[in-house]
Amino acid sequence: MTNVSLTDTVLVLVHGAWHSSGQWAATQRALAGAGAASVAVDLPGHGFDAPLPTGYLLPGQPGLLTERSRLAGLTMDDCAEAVLCVLRRVRHRRRVVLVAHSAGGGPASLAVERAPELVHRIVYLSAFVPGGRPRFSDYLGSSENATALGRNLHLGDARALGAVRINPLAPDPAYLDELRRTHYHDTPADRFDRWRSALSPDLPLAIPTAPVTLTAARWGSVPRTFLRCAEDRALAPAAQDLMIAEADRAFPGNPFTVRTLPGGHSPFAARPDELAAALVP
């Protein structure tokens, strides 16, 4: 990411499942200190405007396992449009770098496929790349991802709920320990409660299950970087490598630049300064 001054660059940051634009705050402060502008996206169904299951904040959380999500009707197109809306607002910048974390890779990829002229580079931070397989669930269920944690976090029947539902406010210490070990195992322990309390319980089912189709002339024309998380417990490094390899085979004319970061799935929580440095080398 050279040849253009940081003052001419804006980074558009897309969060992953159950997170929000707020996950990027510490990274954005570090980016600002380096002279880089940034704006964080809230995908539909995430952030302060996310509708919650009606019993989520009540004693005993009634209906949490069965109440259909109010996000059930959201589509991958809706999520990609949220990214495109921000990209259109910052198009006056000479250089736009789109950064996607985890499940945010699907909407970000579709946004680039729809409007490659708005993006100068896309960065995948341990994120879904639909270059080889069209659905995130195709990689989550792969043998390469067999060592990943977190499957016991999902509540109820996702198809009946219309969402992949978790319970960040669960009273069960064993459940919370798995949530910590999956997403925040290298984040300071005294910050875990703050991080988990900021999560939304519902991920629209379309994000992991809707197919994203890419073409060489559009998505494939945009330079891309993959930032591997070496100790990732939510998306195993072997699954990250599989996505990179399959995308490069499908789009050999513009292969990934690959870098490896230390630590787990959430470097924005564990080491935001290092993450910012990786985004603006």
Strand order of the largest sheet: 2-1-3-4-7-8
- What global shape is seen? globular
Tell me the radius of gyration: 18 Å
Elements, N to C (H/E): EHEHEHEHHEHHEHEHEHH
Largest sheet at a glance?
6 strands, parallel
Helical residues, percent: 25-40%
Note the beta-strand portion.
5-15%
Poorly predicted parts? none
Helix vs. strand class: alpha/beta
CATH class call: Alpha Beta
**Distance N terminus to C terminus?**
7 Å
Number of domains: 1
| Count of individual beta strands | 8
CATH architecture: 3-Layer(aba) Sandwich
CATH superfamily: Alpha/Beta hydrolase fold, catalytic domain
InterPro entries: AB_hydrolase_1, AB_hydrolase_fold, Sec-Metab_Biosynth_Hydrolase
Protein name: Alpha/beta hydrolase
Pfam family, one: Abhydrolase_6
GO molecular function: hydrolase activity
Structure, described:
This is Alpha/beta hydrolase. With about 280 residues, the chain is an alpha/beta fold. It has one domain (about 5-280): Alpha/Beta hydrolase fold, catalytic domain (Rossmann fold). About 30% of the residues lie in helices and about 15% in strands. It has eleven helices and eight strands. The protein has helices at about 25-35, 75-90, 105-115, 135-140, 160, 175-185, 190-195, 205-210, 235-250, 265-270, 270-280, and strands spanning about 10-15, 35-40, 95-100, 120-125, 165, 200-205, 225-230, 255-260. The strands form two sheets. It has a six-stranded parallel beta sheet with strand order 2-1-3-4-7-8, sandwiched between helices. A two-stranded antiparallel ribbon has the order 5-6. α2 (about 75-90) crosses α3 (about 105-115). The model has no long low-confidence stretch (mean pLDDT about 95).
